[in-house]
Amino acid sequence: MGAQATLAVLLLFTAVVNSKKPDGGVEFKNKDFTMTCPLPGDWFKKQAQLNSSVKIHTQTYNGKTKGLYHCKYKPTGGVEKKYYFYVKGKGCANCFEVKPEFLAAAIVVDVVVTACVMLMVFRCTKKKSSASSKAAARPGGRPPPGQSEYEVLNRHTRSEEYSTVSRTG
């Protein structure tokens, strides 16, 4: 089972390392968004042309600028291609984007610190056992042979309440 888990992790890691990042994308920063085309090309919103022969297009985000964009570019010696973007988000002057790597690192650090604190508490509160402090264990939880489970009452220490108890059997 351990070998299968190791193989699965190794294969997933190889797939992540070999995966190619997309050449284009959209990034939000404050009130602006920036779209990146894989190669310099013409920019369009729906069918209206915005810019020509640029790789990066930046606009201020508001309710009117959200929607479908695309860039047309032609790789060297290839056929013209379109790269599509759909822009919808929230932008503000004091906002910033939290990167997934930063969030994952914060979670890992939190788990490691918590484990260290748990280990310190466990080690500090561990009882130092000694042979004299342990009670002698009786086999099967029964009294030694020849002794009763109940102690007989001493006649001198019995009170009146015990003397008036009727015996039923």
Rg calculated over all Cα atoms = 39 Å
> In which range does the helix fraction lie?
25-40%
Order of helices and strands: HEEEEEHH
Mean pLDDT: 77
What is the tally of helical segments?
3
Shape: elongated
Please give the largest β-sheet: 5 strands, antiparallel
Strand content: 25-35%
Protein model, in words:
The chain is elongated, with a radius of gyration of 39 Å. The chain starts with a helix and ends in a 6-residue tail after the last helix. Strands 1, 2, 3, 4 and 5 form a 5-stranded antiparallel beta sheet that branches. The protein has helices at residues 2-18, 100-124, 160-163, and strands at residues 25-29, 32-45, 48-60, 67-73, 81-87. It is of the alpha+beta class.
What topology emerges from the helices and strands here?
Layout: H1 2-18, E1 25-29, E2 32-45, E3 48-60, E4 67-73, E5 81-87, H2 100-124, H3 160-163
What's the short story on this structure?
With 169 residues, this protein is α+β, with helices and mostly antiparallel strands. It is built from three helices and five strands.
Key attributes of the depicted protein:
alpha+beta, elongated, 27% helix, five-stranded antiparallel beta sheet, single chain, 169 residues
